[in-house]
Amino acid sequence: MLDLTVNRDSKPPLYRQIAEQIKTQISNGRLPANSRLPTVRGLARSLGVTRLTVQNAYAELQADGWVEATVGRGTFVSTAVQQMSLQPTVGQYLTPDSAINDMLAINQVIGVRSMAMAHADPALFPIEAFWGQMDRLKPDANQLLSYGPIQGDTGLRVEVSQMLQDDGIPATPDDILITSGAIQSIYLATAAVAQPGDTVLVEQPTFLGVLNILKAQGLRPLHIPMQPDGPDLDQMEQLVSRHRPRCYYTVANFHNPTGYSISAAKRQTILQLAQRHNMLLIEDDIYGKLGFAGPPPPSFKQQDGGDRVLYLSSFSKMLMPGLRVGYLLMPPAWRDQLLTLRRATDLCGTGLLQRALAHFLQDGGLKKHLRRVVPIYRERRDALLASLGRWMPTAVRWTEPQGGFSCWVTLPRRLPPGLLYRQALENGFAFTPGEAYMMEDTGHEYLRLCFGNLSAEGIEAGVKLLSTLIQQQLDSGQTRGDWLPYV
Questions:
Q1: Nearest Cα to 346, choosing from 317, 365, 331, 325?
Q2: For 241-270, what is the mean pLDDT?
């Protein structure tokens, strides 16, 4: 039996309130697969709303895959809905690789509200505008579906170089290497500049994807604590002097997972330190265009006077991840090595998508898209912070990101790692456990919440559930010693 209420004084439209409450009851198992929902007429009458309101709620649920409608039979919870308690491998091993695997697996599950992945909302993708560019290319399909240039589509490299120049970064089309997303750019950059056994400097916490890459390449990460204005410079100087790391990997703008940005002053100091110790920088600027309070400080690459910075980004966060298009600005000294590695791992990308993206950029599509979506993501960030303030126990702390998609939450030490993750999944809610981003125990537990992919109502529902689970653990007095890993 559905238990629904509507609040006419609340900001969300009534149809959205209805849809989100139904999602909650599907997620927590009260409405299992094949459950029949009330008729449009019956639910409208019981809630005192119009039939159009209920129709809009059901239409949203159907579009998102939560329900199925059959003429003459009614509306039912989708057979694709899966209870996470039936996914025995999810949440068992808290490593960077397993966390990535979990996030990708959970992202395919209908019936789970996920704040685990830092990605754009598919409902906001500029599908019509981009598909129009694809249609234009049909006469060139034979050429574009053949092997393309190793550096990527020439037209796209022209547009990317122009975009970088607009951001104050000198670049020509021949400096650009188009890659299959930022992950490939990071892989190529670290493989080019370091050898197995070398040390690489990273922040703690850091993007778990880079930890996965460093492990696969036999590189040794050294961690520097991340502060609200950037890495701890005293510890950074000590590590650089003692270990002579080959390079420093950083997400300087709207850091993943904390949401912090490195201050302009610290950027200058880090560049000077790199110059003194002959250390390279790998600057991952994937969130740079997703700022909520104006542009971030000048990038490392903008201030790079000696080709010491390998700068990379991607269209996955600012546009659509399924394009699998990233780019790497190649310093002359590393150009040949980077191209050799690219040929050894991936001859070329998808020419059709790259050319369509080039036309999309040329027509101003990205700028128009960002003007539309950044305010929406800002509102969702605000909704997350408001929900955390409203529902979380007082012992919990969190960051206030000024851009990107990630918020870093600090829990009391006594909460057992892993248990909260599994409990949340069993209740139809997903986040990313902080252990996957850390290389050393800091005396706290952490988790990452991503706000880009859910509505404000979905965010509040998830935070409310998570807060309840945390409070229950605090009230129970359970400690880390009570927890046994799922192995």
A1: 325
A2: 97
Tokens coding 16: 């959205």
Q: Which of 240, 247, 241, 249 is nearest to 195 (CA)?
A: 247
Span 434-443, pLDDT tens digits: 888 988 776 6
What is the distance between the alpha carbons of residues 218 and 373, in angstroms, rounded to a whole number? 39
Reported as a single tens digit per residue, the pLDDT across 275-317 is: 999 999 999 999 999 999 988 899 999 999 889 999 999 999 9
Report the C-alpha gap between 374 and 405 in whole angstroms.
11
Angle of helix 127-136 versus helix 351-362 axis, rounded to 10 = 110
What is the C-alpha separation between 38 and 355, in angstroms, rounded? 47
pLDDT above 80 (res 117): yes
Token pair of 404, please? 């990107």
Q: Which of the four pLDDT bands, split at 50, 70 and 90, describes residue 91?
A: very low
Residue type, 345: T
Sign of the alpha-carbon dihedral angle for 98, 99, 103, 106: positive
Residue 58's nearest CA partner among 74, 45, 79, 72 is 74
- Cis peptide bond prior to 257, omega within 30° of 0: yes
DSSP label of 122: G
The predicted-structure confidence for 366-383, as pLDDT tens digits, reads as follows: 999 999 999 999 999 999
Compute the distance between CA of residue 318 and CA of residue 255 in angstroms, rounded to an integer.
15
The pLDDT of residue 84 is above 90: no
For 284-407, where are the alpha helices, taking DSSP H only? Answer: 335-345, 351-362, 365-391
The length of the chain in residues reads 487
* 0.70 exceeded by pTM: yes
Element (H, E) at 298: none
- Tell me the DSSP string of 378-393: HHHHHHHHHHHHHHS-
Could you give the domains of the chain? 14-77 (1.10.10.10), 87-125+368-482 (3.90.1150.10), 143-363 (3.40.640.10)
